Amino acid sequence: MSGEMDKPLIGRHLDSDGSLAEAPSGAPKVGILGSGDFARSLATRLVGSGFNVVVGSRNPKRSAGLFPSAAQVTFQVDAVSSPEVIFVAVFREHYSSLCRLSEQLAGKILVDVSNPTEQEHLRHRESNAEYLASLFPTCTVVKAFNVISAWTLQAGPRDGNRQVPICGDQPEAKRAVSEMVHAMGFMPVDMGSLASSREVEAIPLRLLPGWKVPTLLALGLFVCFYAYNFIRDVLQPYVQERKNKFYKLPVSVVNTTLPCVAYVLLSLVYLPGVLAAALQLRRGTKYRRFPDWLDHWLQHRKQIGLLSFFCAALHALYSFCLPLRRSHRYDLVNLAVKQVLANKSHLWVEEEVWRMEIYLSVGVLALGTLSLLAVTSLPSIANSLNWREFSFVQRASAWPKPTSHKQSQDTHLPALASACSPVPVSTSCGHTEYSSWTL
Ligand SMILES: NC(=O)C1=CN([C@@H]2O[C@H](COP(=O)(O)OP(=O)(O)OC[C@H]3O[C@@H](n4cnc5c(N)ncnc54)[C@H](OP(=O)(O)O)[C@@H]3O)[C@@H](O)[C@H]2O)C=CC1
Ligand SMILES: [Fe+3]
Questions:
Q1: Which atom of ligand 1 is nearest to the CA of 97?
Q2: Which residues contact 120 (CB under 8 A, 6 or more apart)?
Q3: C-alpha angle 438/160/173, rounded to 5°?
Q4: Which residue is closest in CA terms to ligand 1's atom 28?
Q5: pLDDT per residue as tens digits for the range 251-280
Q6: Measured between alpha carbons, how far is 19 from 307 in angstroms, rounded to an integer?
Q7: Which of 261, 302, 313, 394 has the lowest CB atom count within 10 Å?
Q8: How far is the CA of 321 from the centre of ligand 2 (A)?
Q9: Mean pLDDT over residues 370-395, rounded?
Q10: Whole-model pTM?
Q11: CA distance 117 to 93
């Protein structure tokens, strides 16, 4: 690598509006091939982070006006001659059109930012980055930035999506790209060699992978409880007393069903921790893997907990709407008429009044507590808390002694010390992953 790349690449950070006049002279030079949406956002951020940007376009005249004035827009062949790091911001099907630049690109670092579509991902056995590497055997290909959208690049990194997975076969090249990622305000995550690029390219194709089972579980529970409540509140009065209560189907039965689902889901958040602890006690060791079903269950606690919160919140909303129903108004009027006919002037059942007051108060408090748990399970909030603060919020009693994150990752098992309290999820994921929604 040239001496230029050996200098630290850390530049200035971009303001949220993305505007910054001029990259400092002598700043590291970076090339971008392509002048599309991604190239434009990338150029803006790179210029703002203190890099000298040169963009290679097939039609520089047309594209120049779309880039920040500090970026130089020129023909592809001119753009790739001096920078050591070149971003390839074109689609896979156009990679081969860049082969005529092979000579100028020899020995340089090519950053593959591309994302395949789902069909492309299934169709090609080799990743886009590996394909690029096969077209340019004299270059070093590094996969990066594919998980960051053009919009995020432009708007600036936010807590939730700051991580940029990087992979490549040459540590030096990866280091150079990682430094650039850092300088741009993102967090590089080393994913290993270029062989992992297929995995990295699959990341943006995922659609809520951790939510499928918990959502099906919640739906299944909803259907079961709804059927039960329908039989109890609607069908049974109809069959036995010929009373037509079918109007209850859209609101009342749903409202009775939601808290049942919420309670069961909440208990399913805590149950696997207890089971895991019992299993460890029975085995007398923490150095054995949990069965797969328990492992998966532990990993899905956060989603199950959030779905429980969702059902509880819906229940609260439905409850607020109950008095708005016309059936409720008719019931009230009928009750009043009945009272008048019975010559009663003051209806007040002390026990009923107290029961409702306490019921509402406890319901509001429970929803408030559940909201707190849900909020602290968000990565951005959880990351801002230390372990003690987190466990204080997530459970009522204090954890005997926090198992270090490292330990739980290494052993792939929770500590026995947590036998009667939460068990960290036994995966190699982050802090929130193994600790969320634990009692
Ligand atoms: N948009 C996004 O949010 C993200 C995009 N990406 C990846 O970035 C890459 C570029 O995406 P994006 O900028 O959105 O796409 P665009 O369609 O907006 O831009 C593609 C660019 O490729 C250039 N190009 C070079 N050679 C050819 C060719 N032979 N035929 C057609 N175009 C060519 C064109 O620039 P010119 O005419 O100047 O040569 C064109 O502007 C893709 O691989 C995409 O997967 C990754 C993450 C997010
Ligand atoms: Fe309730």
A1: 29
A2: 92
A3: 115
A4: 94
A5: 999 999 999 999 999 999 999 999 999 999
A6: 41
A7: 313
A8: 13
A9: 80
A10: 0.68
A11: 12
Take residue 77 and report the two structure tokens written for it: 């062949």
Contact 373, 394 (CB under 8 A): yes
Ligand 1 pocket member 97 (CB < 6 A): yes
ipTM entry: 0.96
